[in-house]
Amino acid sequence: MHAQSVAPQGIADEAKTSPLQVLTLVLCFLVVAADGFDVASVGYVAPLLKSAWSLTPAQLGPIFGAGLFGLTVGSFLFGPLADRIGRKRVIVISLILFGLGSLACAYAPSAGWLVALRFLTGAGLGGAMPNSITLSSEFSPPRGRAMRVTLMFCGFTLGLAGGGAVASLLLPTFGWQGVFVFGGVFPLLLAPVIWLWLPESIRFMAGKPRYAKEARRTIERLTGDANTPIDSLAPEDARREDAQQSVIGTLFSTRYRTGTLLLWIAFFCTLWVYYQVSSWLPTVITSAGIDASHAARVGAMLPLGGTLGSLVNARLMDRMNPFFVLSGSYAIAAVSIALIGVAIGEPFLVYVTVFMAGFGLSGAQTGANVLVAGFYTTAARATGVSWALGVGRIGSIIGSMTGGVLLATFHSLPAAFALFAAPVVIAGLAMLANGWVYRSRA
């Protein structure tokens, strides 16, 4: 079963691409770009923080981890809230919270304060990305949905990469505080733009009297005809299911229970390995006698490969069973990651293996974000996306902490990287099983 066919169909699916749909994708692109910049900001300022406060690497660790922990908490909190008050409102709340949090980070007097503020900033961030994915999916027609949502999600990569350029301009003049100030001002300026111009999900508003006027305005912006029956936007079976089950109950209902657990396994394993590899690869490369600048170029192959892999997967997911497409992507990732340990001493091969690891692993994660956004019914969709990412972020915390332990335990790099690849195999099998289960139901 294609992930898109699980969700109720609506007017946004049936209409030709409208300016409102394009605007929605562009605004969500900017939201995840702000998200990407904030996630990467600590990495840009870490050397200056280390010097200014005389921090050891061990003391820097909690500053990095606090943001990830906050993201995890925020994902679990903001998902159900978005299914209660709407995707757009939670995105605005999230922008304001992490904007204020980032500004506060610029005035942190000590490392302890910065850890606390990074946690609060991360918690605010937890609602931005999942709801941008959800809203983009709900405003994209089935044909080309995976590609459109993937292009929107490229804003996150842009935020990560473009943040480096912004930081290089700010650091010499404004120091590390300038990076946090920029990371706070941008989302705060974006929040009123989102409130004024980003539409709320029509599927979310359908059947809710308090959103009737807003739904009419959105329908008119989408089609030019405000008289389209709102009830036609949510099929009867979806409305009945939404009314009878709680949001969390839907995720674990007979219809979704198997898919939920298998998706969580895939998200957990994917982000575990991605953060494990991305966090420790530069150390492995430099320990092999390769200079730091060369190690940075090798590390850049991971997101570069991921961008290409995301676009290829999106194209295939629009044409084939998306679960099976992602299973193939995981297979590429597992083989490539295992080969990194063998290729470390060969400059050309290490470029290729790291690029292909990003192609398979990061490409699969972006595809999984798109897939889960179309998997659940409207009433539980934001929670489904947010909680899947929340489970994945637990994996990211574990991955960033365990990589060094595994490298120290296994004196052989080929053995260590083969073990790094093992969770990717589990993720691929989970996707394969999900594809088989939902294909058989169709």
From TrEMBL:
Gene3D superfamilies: MFS general substrate transporter like domains. InterPro entries: MFS (IPR011701), MFS_dom (IPR020846), MFS_trans_sf (IPR036259), Sugar_transporter_CS (IPR005829). Its main location: membrane. GO terms for molecular function: carboxylic acid transmembrane transporter activity. The keyword Membrane applies. Residues 24-439 form the Major facilitator superfamily (MFS) profile domain. It is a multi-pass membrane protein. The keyword Endoplasmic reticulum does not apply. GO terms for cellular component: plasma membrane. The chain crosses the membrane at residues 22-46, 58-78, 90-109, 115-137, 149-170, 176-198, 258-275, 295-316, 323-344, 350-375, 387-410, 416-438. PROSITE patterns: MFS, SUGAR_TRANSPORT_2. Keywords: Membrane, Transmembrane, Transmembrane helix. It is found in: Membrane. It comes from the Bacteria. PANTHER family: CARBOXYLIC ACID TRANSPORTER PROTEIN HOMOLOG (PTHR23508). This is Major facilitator transporter.
